[in-house]
## 1
Amino acid sequence: MKTRIAVLVSGGGTNLQALIDAELRGEIPHGEIVMVVSNNSGAYALERARQAGIPAAVVSKKECGSQAAFEARLQGILEINGVDLVILAGFMSILSEGFTKKWPNRILNIHPSLIPAFCGEGFYGLHVHEAALERGVKLTGATVHFVNEIADGGPILLQKAVEVLPDDTPETLQRRVMEQAEWQLLPQAAEMVSRQIAENR
Ligand code: GRF
């Protein structure tokens, strides 16, 4: 039986798209994206899920009223759908220890830097690339790691380096890191962990 994957998103969903495309190309033979969950009803990622025919749900923290209620709702949806592996693909909401403890080595995140550089609280979206340019690093990249209670602190699974060019802006660097690292690493990691789960079932 294939590992059942839920992808959690908040925004544009290009990493979700990379996963969908990789699955269609047969590059995630041990896994299947069974649902997409967004914490933002306006996320374009939801449209990508619709176009791919993947069921999607919206769970908003505001409507749930509290972090605990939000996570309980999320947990319920994942359980009902028999999810084995959760992939955070640009999911902009921090999950508490109460939640991550229920999913040991079962939540993956993609971060757009070479952890431990430019990670942790406050390092999200363009801020990561702004900080890399400000520091003047010549190499940056992306990291796929397991998620635990420490922000960007779980065990590292895969990393890929990307060159910083002299004329880079945060936007051009973000794009290069996505194209050359994130969109390749995330599907690879999805297959690695899906295979491990499927084989140990
Ligand atoms: C990516 O840079 C990812 O590394 C970060 O958030 C961004 C999400 O982009 N965690 P997208 O929604 O996948 O296009």
## 2
Amino acid sequence: MTEKILIVEDEPTLQETIAYNLKKQGYEVEIVGNGHAALEAARTLNPNLLLLDIMLPGLDGFEITRILRREMNIPIIMLTARDDEIDRVVGLEMGADDYLAKPFSMRELMARVKAQLRRSRLHKKEIEKYAEKNAPQETLNFGELVINTTRHEITLHNKALSLKPKEYELLLFFAEHRGQMLSRSLILERVWGWNYIGDSRTVDVHIRWLRKKIEDDPSKPKRIITVRGGGYRFEG
Ligand code: CA
């Protein structure tokens, strides 16, 4: 996916030069020239990184950083005309991730952008991993057959089964109605939906496939039982 960079800069020449160089690196670029537009654009365009000039019409870069830091976790590189130690400290304290004093080389800027984006991607991955690890796992257990409804994973004898989406939905529907006789038409309606154009043979075919995967002996099914003249019953 192309990463999007929001340039907040009020000098037209610098805007253009930065945008040109970023596009050449394959980034998508959006440009705004004042503080209020910067807030609006950061909120609506969902950029991956913000290049933020400090001296801007409207809100200045410090104020923008202070506001955005409370709302989103986006890497911010501040750009300033003054190579002033105070600005640098204030900028970083406000929550900027990096700081570049004008005039800077485009090469330097590109390197900083790349580094911040890499850091941000790693950070996102870590958060996702953490969230996944700590998410409550909902499972339905039928002896050796376990359905993890959080991860949409099925294991049989501790081995992961590869089920097609409809097979998974069908098994889940059975699992939620264990012990009940389910007619082909009910299964068709609930798993395939009202609008599905097809007949009950669709159900039979999918059950045959499912049995191959979840039955120890598909020719003598013990989990999904055929009910004569009726439909199917899931025994677990
Ligand atoms: Ca400026």
